[in-house]
Amino acid sequence: MARGVDTKALVFDLVRASGRASRAGLAERTGLTGATISTLVRQLMEEGLVEESGRARSTGGKPRTFVQVVPDARYAIGIHLTRCDMVLVLANLLGAVVARTRRPCDLGSHQWSQALTQAVDELVMGAGVPRERVLGAGVVGSDSVRAEILASQQARDISLLGRPVLFDNDASAAALGEWWVSPAGSTDDALVVYLGAGIGGGYLAGGRLRRGVNQGEGELGHVCVDMAGPVCSCGARGCLEAVGGPESVVRRAVGQEDLARAAGLGPQPGARGSVEANFAAVARVAQAGDLAAQRLLAESARALAVAVRSVVNVLDVATVVLTGPSAGAAGAFYLPVLEEELALRFGAGSRGLMEIRLSPSSGTAAALGAASLVLDTAVRATT
């Protein structure tokens, strides 16, 4: 179940996921008494988070009254920082993006925090959202970017609309965001695979993001896929990122003169734009028919699929979601290979079909996830 003993948040989650729900229906789904559900719904209504939204057709007794989330009751800002740009979104209580922008960002400069503050002010003002309804901001990036941000005096001086600022890993945030904004309701159990410059992910169990003992969950990029493979930046050999991560793909493309020229790559990954932008350029020429680019993506997809199959065999999840900017650029190459490999998983014949899908918000997944951190924390804090 989505939140266990966190009953008011559980009720909110179910209302949000289903679009609207009756008190009787919530009691049936949660196992809580009707009186308890009525109390929790009343509290959510008093906080302005849900409202009544009509009645069901009468079948002889008292018709059921539905409640639904009030989307514009609260908002959150999500910010995804890389070393060369920032993506900002403003999301409402349902996780729907009401405004977004992308700006250049040089983390090596002394003005990036001021540029970020200005971008947030302009985003909220341009959307016409009352500042008092903005709960706060989430700021996410890769582990190396996040470490650089947190070590900076500028990060300690950030004040975004005078609201709380949460920091997290981009892949973990994207996993939470996938659960929060899922258009068909929350996916209770899923492996979310995030492709950015590297490869990360998150494990959703019971609708909650599992953090791990050392907050190190989701390090899919460091699953070994080739014991004789190249040495990874972590020091181990044959990690998925070293064998088939987006940066690895770009590095190998840079070493092929014709391909590098066709994709407009610089002398090293990220030399012209971000690694993600370089990877997207390789994906574009692959889609245009470049065989060398297609081979690189096929090898990367196979390595990823092998790692995902290993994790799925351990966790036995029913859903795998592929997201992140690099997934958005090359999802068409990766999904078929994932489907083929996961058909070989242990027990597949007796456990039904697995859903493997590309997130519709791949390009802004990390920023959406950053906003979801704020929304999720705020909802749980009211309980």
UniProtKB/TrEMBL annotation:
Signal peptide: none annotated. Gene3D superfamilies: 3.30.420.40, Winged helix-like DNA-binding domain superfamily/Winged helix DNA-binding domain. SUPFAM superfamilies: Actin-like ATPase domain (SSF53067), Winged helix' DNA-binding domain (SSF46785). InterPro entries: ATPase_NBD, ROK, WH-like_DNA-bd_sf, WH_DNA-bd_sf. Belongs to the ROK (NagC/XylR) family. This is ROK family protein. It comes from Actinomyces urogenitalis DSM 15434.
